[in-house]
Design brief:
alpha/beta, Rossmann fold, two-stranded antiparallel ribbon, 16 helices, 47% helix, 17% strand, globular, disordered N terminus, binds S-adenosylmethionine
């Protein structure tokens, strides 16, 4: 046995006898018992190690106890899902009171034809149905992260006392990603983006025994990362900052993972663009296919800092609808460059839709110039990623949607930009 394997077995045995050994169900580890020795493959070992690091970051003493503390961000997101029903019903009540502004005689016509009150009642009922999923997400999260119900209750009571409302939008956005990433309805949208990225990854030279290390920052709830892991020869990590997204991801990875075993009504919170009321109220189920939860390692936290110490460790970075989330886009470019090994590849696909307070708002040509200045050389990603954006830029454009309701009457799309850049 070489020293590396020996150390590995020692550390596993230590974790087996330790009272702090982590719950294999939560960690994604599936120990294989051979007589009285527990053997865990390297895939599961990296899950265990990351879980231990996560618990350290979640410790109250890990940093100043304020809204940026990982445990407070987690509790805030748990509080968000916990209040799902209350926050969504509030909105329906607002619609009810607006409906009262319609004259009595008009309401009579409306009720005798389309029964608007019935629609409001049904939506309230379906919000209660959705709340069952939201509360499951809370329970899965409490179990996975090792947070007690009483800690969450206490945190929630404090929030309510301080008049801090749960963030309805972040909860709704994270739950909408079940459709984008893990429902059959999202298949078309996924194919629009994934063909370009997976098509390039498939072409990369690699070996099963020495897989290429891939990182997917801002990975949302993980479908792209899992699709990459399904291609042989890649060891995939993903990263995500939002605890709302991370809780939704943990829900997908909850055992037992059975295809289409979970369902909810994703389109209740926005009444625009529906062809029929039953379209708006329809249920969507997920996950649409088998998920190997140990195939991808989720590293939670801010992409620009959580990988400190992993300089040059990755062969490939894949960013999908991510780079425009930066407050400081140059810091993203520098981080991508820093984490790649020399000769490593950065694949990008996404728009330039800046948020509310970015330090920099760059046009495409400026992003390319800065990336070159940081130390990237651009290669043509090929026709699979669309048409050449501009003659003088090594970038392709493809019309792609994000979070689309396939039965909706709207078609919001982006001319997503894709490039392949090599670290010099
Ligand atoms: C537009 S979403 C795209 C998610 C996913 N890539 C997809 O295509 O569905 C951008 C994601 O980046 C995450 N994000 C933003 N800033 C981040 C940061 N500094 N570190 C890690 N993730 C971040 C957001 O929470 C969000 O989930």
């Amino acid at each position: 046995m070489n020293s590396k394997i020996f150390l590995l077995v020692l550390s596993i045995l230590a974790s087996v006898v330790s009272s702090e050994s982590i719950d294999p169900v939560s960690s994604g580890a599936t120990p294989k018992l051979v007589e009285n020795i527990t053997l865990v493959d390297t895939q599961n070992l990296r899950h265990e190690e990351e879980y231990a690091r996560l618990q350290t970051r979640l410790g109250r003493e890990s940093q100043v106890w304020d809204g940026n503390h990982p445990r407070q961000r987690l509790l805030t997101a748990l509080y968000g899902f916990r209040q799902y029903q209350e926050r969504h019903i509030e909105e329906v009540q607002r619609w009810r009171s607006l409906y009262k502004k319609v004259s009595k005689s008009q309401r009579k016509t409306i009720e005798s034809t389309i029964k608007y009150n019935h629609k409001l009642n049904t939506v309230e009922h379906l919000i209660e149905v959705n709340d069952e999923l939201a509360q499951e997400i809370v329970q899965t999260g409490l179990h996975f992260y090792g947070i007690s119900q009483s800690e969450l209750d206490e945190f929630s009571a404090d929030q309510i006392r301080e008049g801090k409302k749960a963030d309805r939008t972040s909860v709704a956005q994270a739950m909408k990603h079940f459709v984008r990433d893990w429902a059959d309805e999202g298949r078309g949208e996924r194919e629009e983006s994934f063909t370009c990225l997976l098509g390039q990854l498939i072409e990369m030279e690699r070996e099963i025994n020495a897989p290429l290390k891939v990182l997917v920052p801002g990975g949302g709830i993980g479908r792209l990362a899992h699709e990459i892991a399904r291609l042989d020869g890649f060891e995939v990590s993903m990263n995500e900052w939002s605890m709302y997204m991370n809780l939704a991801y943990r829900q997908i990875m909850r055992e037992p993972i059975i295809s289409n075993s979970q369902s909810y009504h994703p389109w209740l919170d926005w009444w625009s663009h529906h062809a029929t009321t039953s379209d708006m109220q329809r249920a969507v189920s997920f996950p649409d296919s088998f998920v190997d939860k140990s195939a991808v390692l989720l590293v939670e936290g801010d992409f620009t800092t959580v990988f400190n110490g992993e300089e040059g460790q990755y062969d490939v970075l894949v960013t999908l609808f991510f780079i425009d989330t930066a407050r400081n886009l140059l810091t993203y470019l520098e981080t991508i460059h820093r984490l790649l090994r020399p000769g490593g590849t950065w694949l990008n696909l996404g728009p330039l839709l800046y948020g509310t307070a970015p330090f920099l708002q760059l046009s495409l040509d400026e992003v390319i110039s800065l990336a070159r200045a940081v130390g990237f050389e651009f290669e043509d990603p090929g026709d699979v990623c669309g048409d050449v954006s501009f003659n003088e830029l090594p970038v392709r454009s493809k019309e792609i949607s994000y979070g689309r309701n396939v039965r909706g009457l709207n078609r919001n799309g982006f001319l997503a930009q894709s490039w392949r850049a090599i670290k010099l």
